[in-house]
Amino acid sequence: MPVTCTRQDGPEVQGTIVDLSVGGVFIEAPSSPPYGAKIVIHADLPGAPKLALAAVVRWNKPHGFGVQFGLLGAVETHALAAIVAKSRLSA
Questions:
Q1: Domain 2-90 has what CATH class?
Q2: What CA–CA distance (Å, rounded) separates 75 from 57?
Q3: DSSP letter at 47?
């Protein structure tokens, strides 16, 4: 799933969700925000289009970065839980 990540003090990053959980996500991208950066992930997830998910960068790799989600509302939590459950059933 394609995503756009924004932050107040840096460039926008385009990426692809590779590994999603209710607590966070790994985003494959050509560049990464620095460790500890607060970002907003803009995504159109199945069942919940136009989500804006607050997150903090927790680790970086040469091909992407991992984030921990901040406080999520009921719609976001439900959408993430449904996607994660569906992906586990199809695995």
A1: mainly beta
A2: 22
A3: T
